[in-house]
Design brief:
Blueprint (H helix, E strand, L loop, with lengths): L11 H13 L1 H22 L3 H24 L5 H26 L6 H24 L7 E3 L3 H17 L7 E2 L2 E2 H16 L4 E3 L12 H16 L1 H26 L21
Antiparallel strand pairs: 1-4, 2-3
Helix pairs in contact: 2-3, 2-4, 3-4, 3-6, 4-5, 4-6, 5-7, 6-7, 6-9, 8-9
């Protein structure tokens, strides 16, 4: 038992601060859940045959996925739970959703080859995300090890969105090419590129708070204007260029005799062997 004089009332200000800090943690997770909903929405739209809306759903998930981490850093609410939640959301929105949408749109017309391509893409997305989680502390922040899953999803969905905008169906022909086999090739390329050791620029070195030359703002304005000319075509061209940029960087480094690995630690530890190739 304690005397009344010994009792100290809790500091209400500190309690308010603690509650406020706990409440802030919901912000990045709300963005993550919204991104997850974008992927789920895309799958539902594809099941209904509305592939234009499915494409929009995946791209909305990409935008929201790029915001949750920034919100967490801005509010100092990073957590292990948030990291795991983000990975699971990415697996749905950028792994399962593009694979299922591509299969429903055209790959099912290839029979077993179609679902094999869809599964390879989905499996590679899972492997890519798992490797990213375990290599976060040792990878050069300026680069991704392999193409990031949102970029792979953008490549697959960008092609479907472009074809849909042009009125081309999954069973049609694109000149001398069968759209089904073109989609097959894109899905395999995107999936396998995710699990390579090819370095892709991460743009994490770009700081929005730093001042930039006036010409940079002019270039951004011109870029927005070019995209508005024909968004599906221009954006797909951007996605293709980025998907090839990693191989260009890899080839340039090999030609210059530079180190091609983005792993920044030694290979002495057993768990790091095989990551530096």
């Amino acid at each position: 038992m304690h005397d009344g004089d010994d009792f100290e009332a809790p500091d209400t200000d500190s309690l308010v601060i603690k509650k406020r800090r706990k409440g802030i943690y919901i912000l990045p997770n709300l963005f993550t859940l919204a991104a997850l909903f974008g992927g789920f929405y895309a799958i539902v739209m594809a099941m209904d045959g509305r592939f234009d809306q499915a494409t929009i759903g995946v791209f909305c998930a990409m935008v929201l996925d790029s915001l949750d981490g920034r919100v967490a850093r801005m509010t100092n609410t990073q957590s292990a739970f948030g990291e795991q939640m983000d990975s699971l959301s990415d697996m749905v929105s950028f792994g399962a959703a593009p694979a299922l949408i591509a299969y429903l749109w055209t790959l099912k017309g290839l029979g077993r080859w179609g679902w094999i391509a869809a599964f390879v893409y989905c499996a590679c997305a899972a492997l890519r995300l798992a490797r990213f989680n375990v290599n976060t502390a040792v990878v050069d922040k300026r680069f991704f090890q392999g193409m990031p899953s949102p970029a792979a999803a953008a490549l697959v969905m960008g092609f479907i969105g472009l074809m849909t905008d042009l009125g081309i169906q999954g069973a049609d022909r694109l000149g001398v090419f069968d759209v089904r086999w073109v989609t097959f090739g894109i899905a395999l390329f995107a999936g396998l590129t995710m699990v390579t050791n090819v370095p892709f620029y991460s743009f994490k070195g770009v700081h929005m708070k730093r001042s930039v030359p006036f010409a940079v703002l002019v270039a951004i304005a011109l870029g927005i204007a070019v995209v508005n000319i024909d968004p599906p075509t221009v954006l797909f061209g951007v996605f293709v260029a980025y998907s090839l940029s990693g191989y260009v960087i890899y080839g340039w480094r090999r030609a210059k005799g530079l180190r091609t690995s983005v792993i920044s630690t030694s290979t002495d530890e057993p768990e790091e062997r095989g990551l530096h190739k």
